[in-house]
Amino acid sequence: MSAWSVWAMVAPEPPHGATLGGTLEVVALLCIGVAVLGLLLVEFVFKSSMARSTYRWTLLLGLFVLPGVALLGTTGHMFESMKAVEACQSCHVMDPFVADMHNSQSATLAARHYRSGAIPAKQCYACHTGYGIFGTVESKRDGFRHWLLYVTDTWKEPITYKGTYPNANCLACHATAPAFLRVDSHKALGKQLANDEMNCFTCHGLPHPPRPTRAPTRVTANP
């Protein structure tokens, strides 16, 4: 059996139906279409029969209001699309992490969550929401540093995480789960976990493969 067949059997089924990103994209395209068609009709068909004030308000709607709505829609679509795993993987330095998550034999937390279907979509974003629009200033700072290292090609292989991962990201889903609450040690260590005095990874293993096991992703020219 091929590796793809194994992955296909354990991979959670992606969600069906309309998505927010797709809806925003449709709204933006409709606004652009209505604005262009409306301006053409007003200028070349109805201009002579329209009151001057109506003509001005129509131009305002077509030149500024509808394009503004289209801009908001495309911006929203961009933010939504950036939550997808494919967006994270578009930086090739993330390839080892995405490959590990899809690996049916991996024991990392990312792979185990993926196999169980606990996070059916947007797996990267679900655990790394600090980069989101409402994330902390520290997360924005770190995100900018990561982007700067990438575009200037100055990162070091294998990449390493600087700082500590907040337990709040784990507890957001697990703190009220019956399986979590049944474990006595979770109750006993509740204060330490809430204050990040003890990390969830101490007992539950690494979320991603350790540095020595990651294949280099940097592309180098042949000598």
UniProtKB/TrEMBL annotation:
Task: Report the residue ranges that make up the Cytochrome c-552/4 domain in this protein.
Answer: 166-205
Fetch the InterPro entries from UniProt: Cyt_c-552/4 (IPR023155), Multihaem_cyt_sf (IPR036280), NapC/NirT_cytc_sf (IPR038266)
| Membrane-spanning residues | 26-46, 58-79
Pfam families of this UniProt entry? Cytochrome_C554
> Which keywords does UniProt give here?
Electron transport, Heme, Iron, Membrane, Metal-binding, Transmembrane, Transmembrane helix, Transport
Q: Does the keyword Manganese apply?
A: no
Q: Which domain of life is it from?
A: Bacteria
- Under which name does UniProt file this protein? Cytochrome c-552/4 domain-containing protein
